[in-house]
Design a protein that fits this description.
Blueprint: H1 2-10, H2 13-34, H3 57-69, H4 77-94, H5 96-99, H6 104-148, E1 152-155, E2 159-160, E3 166-169, E4 176-181, E5 189-190, E6 194-201, E7 206-211
Parallel strand pairs: 4-7
Antiparallel strand pairs: 1-3, 1-6, 2-5, 3-4, 6-7
Transmembrane segments: 16-37, 77-99, 105-126
Keywords: Membrane, Transmembrane, Transmembrane helix
Length: 212
């Protein structure tokens, strides 16, 4: 049994590559667990929207939608990679009795449907993680917005009124630029005036300000 399992892992060139990659990935996770590498290194900040490049607009939509469907940009890329690799390896080892005697070309052809199945598995397995990450980001953003409310700001556009405008909030680095408007039609703030952030419109992501 052990010998058969070992053969399934290394006898096929495809399974051998997957086994090596899985070992390397497992060692990396071990290093992360032991604390030698920060957990932040798992997130490479890949956004599905970044897939858009100059060219056909239809292709952009297809590529971006596909990456979004696979949770790319929603889940740390190394988590996606680990789940995908584990699925590829498991299917390859379990299916070795079927394709083990095939030539390399046929094994590579067999790898294509295995990859498609593994992508679906990756999608399903990481869906709960994607929801958890989305909830955490929403909570963090809400907390950040609460910290902004009540802070002083400076009008950076020509005016800020009920139709809109822009303000700047001083930070340790570059000033934070925010879209803003007033609630009272009689209040018009001019460039350079100081104001206070009093509320936020969750739908439009615009802040309401009042004269300071």
């Amino acid at each position: 049994m052990v010998i058969d399992f070992f053969n399934a892992c290394v006898a096929s060139p495809v399974n051998l590559v997957l086994s090596v990659l899985l070992c390397v990935t497992g060692l990396y996770w071990l290093v992360v667990i032991l604390g030698a590498v920060g957990i932040d290194s798992l997130d490479l900040d890949f956004d599905a929207g970044d897939a858009d490049v100059d060219g056909d607009v239809g292709a952009h939509g297809f590529v971006g939608d596909t990456l979004e469907f696979l949770n790319v940009g929603r889940v740390p890329i190394l988590v996606l990679w680990s789940v995908l690799l584990l699925s590829l390896w498991a299917i390859g080892v379990l299916a070795y009795p079927v394709f083990g005697g095939w030539g390399l070309l046929f094994q590579l052809l067999f790898f294509v449907p295995v990859l498609l199945v593994s992508l679906i598995v990756m999608k399903l397995v990481t869906m709960p993680i994607a929801r958890m990450v989305k909830t955490m980001e929403a909570d963090s953003e809400a907390e950040s917005n609460l910290k902004l409310l009540g802070r002083r700001c400076t009008v950076s556009s020509l005016t800020v009124d009920t139709r809109g405008g822009q303000v700047e909030v001083a930070t340790a680095g570059a000033p934070l630029k925010l879209h803003a408007r007033t609630r009272d039609e009689s209040v018009v703030l001019n460039k350079g005036d100081e104001a206070v952030l009093v509320a936020e419109d969750d739908e439009s992501r615009v802040y309401y300000v009042a004269a300071f």
